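Something for you to look into today, if you have time. Could you write out one complete protein record for me, on any chain you like? The space below this message is yours for that.
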Amino acid sequence: MSSKILTVFLLLSLVSMHQIPVVTCRQWCMAMPNVSDEQLQANIDYVCNNGVDCTPIQPGGVCYEPNTLYNHASYAMNAYYQNHGRVEDSCRFNRSSCWVFVDSCVY
């Protein structure tokens, strides 16, 4: 991981952990890179069973590729966050998430 990317990741982690408000017009909720596969799957299961359309991460869906648990969880977690008012509580996921300022899925 390059030092610039690591610096940005650490800054975003601090913002997330300390609940420092960030003013931005575009913000996404994503999985933390160090989260276990079990937690990622639990996040997907929770989101997909609580009103979020998860067809984009199913085979043939617009966000199926890259076909990784991390990317699918990030999509699902962000969809939940966006559909639930973009409030802080909708991007908690048992401390397995962070906010980013780059969209995780390009359509």
